[in-house]
Amino acid sequence: xxxxxxxxxxxxxxxxxxxxxxxPVDEKxxxxxxxxxxxxxxxxxxxxxxxxAEVDQAREQIEARLxxxxxxxxxIVRGDGLSILISGFSxxxxxxxxxxxxxxxxxxxxxxxxxxxxxTYRMDMLVAMANFLRNQAVNQARTIIARRIxxxxxxxxxISIYGSGDVKDQIIIELPGVDDPDRVKDLxxxxxxxxxxxxxxxxxxxxxxxxxxxxxxxxxxPSEYEILxxxxxxxxxEQNLLVVRRxxxxxGSHLKNARRSEDNLTGRSEVSFFxxxxxxxxxxxxxxxxxxxxxxxxxxxxxxSAPNIQEQISTESARIxxxxxxxxxxxxxxxxxxxxxxxxxxFLENRTIGPSLxxxxxxxxxxxxxxxxxxxxxxxxxxxxxxxxxxxxxxxxNLAILLGFLAYFRATLTLPGIAGIILTIGMAVDxxxxxxxxxxxxxxxxKTIRAAVDTGFGKVFSTIIDxxxxxxxxxxxxxxxxTGPLKGFAVTLAIGLLANIFTAVFVSRTxxxxxxxxxxxxxxxx
Length: 526
Description:
The protein is an alpha+beta fold. Helices cover 53% and strands 19% of the residues. It has a four-stranded antiparallel sheet. Strands 3-4-6-5 form a four-stranded antiparallel sheet.
């Protein structure tokens, strides 16, 4: 008697906790994109940008280190593919160059070849290193996109890496409840690369065309300078090109915060950003050495403003001014706070799902689930009579456990997930059918009711475990290798299967024990 009472207490506790976890349903269960409506995006990270940037950085490091060791005046240029060519060194400098290329080769990043009889080295990035950088760029892009989406305020977004081969370069983004795809695309697509660069002190511009800018340098622009456009000026027919240094004084890596602010005089929106300690030191040194020159504020290759440096600036804050709306300023500050993407991204798919479609899916899914439960319950009562109530109770408890776990783990319920629930309803009574049929078979052999129940549960137990575990393995594979919709189906199916084992093996037998304990039954309604 005590054992039966303990089993009943366990069942009551599981049922109570499950209901508490998922009730109220509309607050505890997260709805997926197909049920709630929203935006579905697939973006491709241009991973070659990150790899090419790494090669450029390596070339600059080699040039700087050799120059520091006295091997200046060498030709160190980019070759085809992911290669660096080093030439133009003397016999005295060859040992320094050899030591330098050996360091890169020993770090397992580049392989080196030299032309026989010529003082030329070719460094080629290893395929494994290039693939590592590509995958790293995708992972970084996913992290930064997730950070931007979180700050945008989207609840329960789905952001996952997808693709095939050695490099998975696509990211699936699902944003439930969002109905402004253009703003989201701008927010995600902005590289967010902030740089503060010194404008050429003599030939600063602005110039109307690149030809005019090059003419100022006799068609030979110094390698340490580049020509950048000024934001918005070309559309207004104004001169819009500035000549700035390639090397930035400070970059977005020196930022610690950014926010929208307003100009005290005009009330226009602008973006204030705040530098960390290293950024303050670099900013102070640059403004002190270049007082009277212009400092261009560059974002994603466009000059937003180029104020004059009136005096040395040692504060941690600076501003980006321009013709910003409140929304544009807020989004720009958000992008700067979340960091720059390691590479450009390209939108492969953009799909918007209306909330009305989601509500219709919910109604149909709930209707199908209820209809399925009613039909299963009716069939079980018709075939197994009073014992069918046992199966119906197990079915209801199975559904409660499933919803409770979905709410507890903050899993997202999708339309395929509802399909998984409906399948679980069907499978929830499968184990009961195996047990009931075995009990009926034992009764036909002349055994007592107690002996038939014990034998039925004992002999069917391994079969129940085998069938559910086999299906559970399939669900795990779907979750591991499937995309969003398949994952939703796999989650509900897996939780339902685990709940099914508990209800079929533990709960169903407990109710038979209660029936048999109350009196020595002479007949079993089965």
